[in-house]
Write a structure and sequence with these properties.
Length: 348
């Protein structure tokens, strides 16, 4: 039998205590919700700020390109230090530094295959223009420095590598690149001052007679002298270069005779100048250490390489000490080539 008194006994509930607990829980959940909300607000603000920064950068780039095009159209280009500008002949020994204006403002840096700009390079000197070509597409396979310490390929900024990638993507041949270089030379010749010198091929070369003729012909439009160095002297006739002072780039003194016989003045890379600053005689040629490498002068002042007829007449050649980040590999190659030349000379 159940106890009726026990069952009907009323429960003792402290309503005040319950209400206080509920209120605490409620406050806690409100506090957490507010915290979550403020975190979300912060994230949204940060995202908006990032988007605004990106929008401003895009607008700035767009404004820059439009101003540049307008200046180019007016023919009064200033020297904006854009990535194109910095690309100016910055590969290789002669090109380091920057230049004035992109070679073609209508081409993005992803389309460019040739750079032709007025360089501010310290070795070349003031007011000298310079062309930079992709190495792999234009240099002869026989060059002992190709992929082996070539200072053009290892130049700062990776501009030559970019030109090579662009040329490969567009499927361009050495001839296409020579035509592009010729187009840029003619275009630049219209606005360059009559005294502006032109240094051809800070990197790259013209490895066929046809390419050399295309570039040589375009250089006729250039008012002052153009000059350069070629590894292709053994098969490209000197006449293809017309008025360009193109020097044969040789590796050992015994090659000087054949280069001179083909009508080329000679230049040679050496691991050290054996007579310090003074010239020395080797292979029937008086070798002059490049004054820009020895003292603080510039090509624009020195001009020895610009007078190939004079160098041939005096049987003088220009010697360059190996330089650039690949100079150890170049030195190694030069030692091997010299040994081989001495061996061949001794055997014959
Ligand atoms: S010899 Fe004169 S012109 Fe030739 S690279 Fe040296 S400084 Fe320039």
């Amino acid at each position: 039998m159940s106890n009726a008194n026990e069952c009907t006994k009323p429960m003792q509930v402290n309503y005040n205590e319950c209400a206080a607990e509920d209120l605490d829980r409620l406050h806690e959940s409100v506090r957490k919700a507010e915290q979550r909300q403020s975190e979300w607000r912060l994230r949204l603000e940060m995202r908006a700020a990032g988007a605004e920064r990106a929008r401003r950068a895009r607008a700035h780039r767009q404004r820059h390109v439009l101003q540049h095009r307008a200046r180019a159209a007016r023919g009064t280009r200033r020297s904006p230090r854009s990535s194109h500008t910095k690309a100016a002949a910055s590969a290789g020994s002669d090109g380091g530094g920057d230049g004035d204006g992109p070679s073609d403002p209508h081409k993005s840096k992803h389309e460019q295959t040739v750079i032709l700009v007025k360089t501010r390079n310290k070795k070349l000197g003031k007011g000298v223009w310079a062309s930079t070509l992709p190495v792999r597409q234009t240099c002869p396979r026989s060059c002992p420095f190709l992929d082996n310490g070539c200072y053009g390929q290892r130049g700062p900024g990776g501009h030559v590598a970019r030109l090579e990638r662009n040329a490969a993507r567009q499927g361009l041949t050495a001839l296409d690149i020579a035509r592009e270089e010729a187009r840029l030379i003619r275009r630049a010749a219209r606005k360059a001052p009559a005294t502006a010198l032109l240094r051809l091929h800070v990197s790259g070369d013209s490895s066929t007679t046809e390419s050399a003729e295309i570039v040589g012909e375009a250089c006729e439009a250039w008012k002052a002298r153009a000059w350069g160095y070629t590894h292709c002297w053994a098969w490209v006739p000197r006449a293809a270069w017309r008025a360009v002072s193109m020097l044969a780039s040789i590796e050992t003194p015994d090659q000087a005779k054949s280069a001179l016989a083909r009508g080329y003045a000679v230049s040679m890379t050496v691991s050290a100048f054996p007579n310090g600053k003074r010239p020395w005689v080797e292979g029937g040629v008086t070798w002059i250490p490049c004054p820009a490498q020895m003292r603080r002068t510039t090509c624009a002042e020195c001009r020895l390489c610009l007078d190939d007829e004079g160098l041939i007449r005096r049987r003088q050649g220009i010697a360059f000490r190996e330089h650039g980040s690949g100079k150890l590999r170049v030195r190694e190659t030069l030692v091997q080539l010299r040994k081989k030349a001495l061996g061949d000379g001794g055997a014959s």
